[in-house]
Amino acid sequence: YKGRFAILETMPLIEDLRRVIIEGGSAIDIKDVSMKHGMISLRRCGLLNAMRGVTTVEEILQTTVGD
Questions:
Q1: Are 40 and 7 in contact (CB under 8 A)?
Q2: pLDDT at site 1
Q3: How far does CA 51 lie from the centroid of its chain?
Q4: Most CB atoms within 10 A, among 7, 11, 28, 53?
Q5: Using alpha carbons only, what angle is made at residue 51 by residues 49 and 52, rounded to the nearest 5 degrees?
Q6: Alpha-carbon distance 43 to 61, whole Å?
Q7: Tens digits of per-residue pLDDT, 7-42?
Q8: Which residue in 7, 44, 14 sits closest to 30, CA to CA?
Q9: Global confidence as pTM
Q10: What's the CA gap between 9 and 41, in Å, rounded?
Q11: 41 and 49 Cβ atoms separated by less than 8 Å
């Protein structure tokens, strides 16, 4: 396909997040802490790109899971 691009979910490894991981927190706990500290989810990254005209909202909704 011509014109493909990546949408990325990045998670900063900060002290609060390390603590949750060490204490055995669930995936939901880890995501909650990450989102509070600025993580951008795949869907949100995709929607930002849709707003920029790089892709469509429909494509993002088909290829990502809700937050």
A1: no
A2: 46
A3: 16
A4: 7
A5: 65
A6: 7
A7: 888 888 899 999 999 999 999 999 899 999 989 889
A8: 14
A9: 0.73
A10: 5
A11: no
Buried b (16+ CB within 10 A) or exposed e, 28-64: eeebebbeeeebbbebbbbbebbeeeebeeeebeeeb
Residue 18: Cβ-neighbour burial (10 angstroms; 0-12, 13-18, 19+): exposed
Q: Note the pLDDT tens digit of each residue in 44-61.
A: 999 999 999 989 999 999
16, 33 contact by CB (below 8 A): yes
The single residue listed with the structure tokens 């949408």 is 7
